[in-house]
Write the structure tokens for this entry.
Amino acid sequence: MTASALLEVEGVVGGYEGTQVLHGLSLRVGAGGVTALLGGNGAGKTTLMKTLAGLLPVRQGRIRFQGEDITERPSNERVHAGLVLVPEGRMVFPSLTVRENLRLGAINPRARPHWQKSLDHVFHVFPRLLERESQAAVTLSGGEQQMLAIGRGLMAQPRLMLLDEPTLGLSPLMSRQIFELVQRLVADGLTLLLAEQDVFQSLNAAGRAYVIENGRVTAEGPARAIADDPRIKQAYLGL
Ligand SMILES: Nc1ncnc2c1ncn2[C@@H]1O[C@H](COP(=O)(O)OP(=O)(O)O)[C@@H](O)[C@H]1O
Ligand SMILES: [Mg+2]
């Protein structure tokens, strides 16, 4: 392991009560750029994301973040350390306004003192959210809700953002905009672990990729090599 690894996952076994989903999964995310998590429906990507965020327990194995063992740490402490999940399905608070949703993203003690500055930054990145800051989140379009979910994640001042299926259910145009945003956040220095159904786009954005099947890593490497792998092409790119 080199010193630049932000996240190291070693042999993680986990899942839900009565259902084991992750069967000894290992991966690492270096600082900077996008690491893509590929795999079909039900492969275990969301389960892994929730486990990394501390929302599901680890039965075996270890998770290290910035060199520290966080396997047993509660989820709020992981957010405080800079490990921030933007969940599948967005999970914004529907009856709260855009601004209130964003403010809630900054409740960890590290981010809270800077919430106003973070808010300005999020509104700068997402002018659309500024236009709608007093609207209830439920009135936003799917794409806008995704922006809000990412914005809320940014409010927590993440060192690593776990971004789960950001383009799910969005139009091709909106999906492209979300990917442009991802690229911009990465250019600004954010590190991302990205689970995405759009394999073509995510391999395009990623430096490295992991393929997950049945809760195990079955292929890994530079995104370009994964994109050229005939097995991957056939299974995920329809080529
Ligand atoms: N709340 C749950 N309780 C039990 N099993 C679940 C739950 N959520 C997901 N699963 C199962 O875990 C497996 C992996 O699902 P998931 O992690 O959501 O996959 P992916 O995100 O790759 O599509 C699937 O077999 C799914 O049915
Ligand atoms: Mg999922």
Summary: The chain has one domain: 5-236. Residues 5-236 form a domain with the Rossmann fold fold (CATH 3.40.50.300). The first strand starts at residue 5 and ends at 16. The radius of gyration is 17 Å.
